[in-house]
Amino acid sequence: MVARASVAAPDHPPVFSLRGVGVRYGLVQALQGVNLTVAPGERVALIGANGCGKSTLLRVLHGLAKPSSGQLLRGEGSRQAMLFQRPHMLRASAQHNVALGLWLHGVRWRDARAQSLQALQRVGLEGIAAQNARTLSGGQQQRVALARAWALRPDVLLLDEPTASLDPHAKREVELLMADLAASHGQAGPGHPVTMVFSSHNLGQVKRLASRVIYLEHGAVLADLPVHDFFNGPLPDAARLFVKGEMV
Ligand SMILES: Nc1ncnc2c1ncn2[C@@H]1O[C@H](COP(=O)(O)OP(=O)(O)OP(=O)(O)O)[C@@H](O)[C@H]1O
């Protein structure tokens, strides 16, 4: 049985609505029967053991993986950006890496360069704007990736274990920036909060950042609860044991 609590009725249409979504890779059923509605401004954490389907679900939400069954509906006109555990950086300056993202979205190169500098300022990296992005530390590269995402003013931010390969200090820096970006608004302006969906193995981070927690097991949703209920209320056995194991 799925532990589920309804989230407050949204004032706006959902950002995502998944009905019975399944993803199959050959013999592997990576996701099965996933029903999920995400409202604007929610901060959803995806948790669960390795291979439970977190990345696949994020990839489905970003259009990088196609459901083999079921249906995914996306809110109209919302702009999405996705970050990965290891950011993809071109062998070019940090500023160039951010500007290119804007240029690919139709911003003129001159404007893209100016806006990319602002975005780098936002993540505290204006001082290394001219440095080759590939030579930056993992934490700095992830901050450049956040700047690249933020520059686009996304309505939806998807992050796949964004701090998993960082040292504790960089982890904290990136986490603070995630909170900062999640508290900002999308391209539609104030009143249109950013929606964030992220995966993490760090339950402290989940407590600090999420408003809602989804626990996946073997590609299925086993619990979908507001963050307070997830950590304080009764859970299905598998989820309870997972939380206990990850907390030690
Ligand atoms: N491209 C692929 N081809 C074949 N199998 C895949 C592919 N991508 C994922 N899988 C399989 O699908 C299942 C779900 O994988 P997924 O990466 O979504 O899990 P995850 O929860 O993100 O894992 P982790 O915590 O290790 O990142 C796993 O069994 C995985 O091996």
Automatic annotation (TrEMBL):
Transmembrane segments: none annotated. Keywords: ATP-binding, Cell membrane, Membrane, Nucleotide-binding, Phosphate transport, Transport. GO terms for cellular component: membrane. SUPFAM superfamilies: P-loop containing nucleoside triphosphate hydrolases (SSF52540). GO terms for biological process: phosphate ion transmembrane transport. It holds the Pfam family ABC_tran. GO terms for molecular function: ATP binding; ATP hydrolysis activity; phosphate transmembrane transporter activity. Residues 16-243 form the ABC transporter domain. Belongs to the ABC transporter superfamily. PANTHER family: ALIPHATIC SULFONATES IMPORT ATP-BINDING PROTEIN SSUB, TAURINE IMPORT ATP-BINDING PROTEIN-RELATED. This is Phosphate ABC transporter ATP-binding protein. It comes from Acidovorax carolinensis.
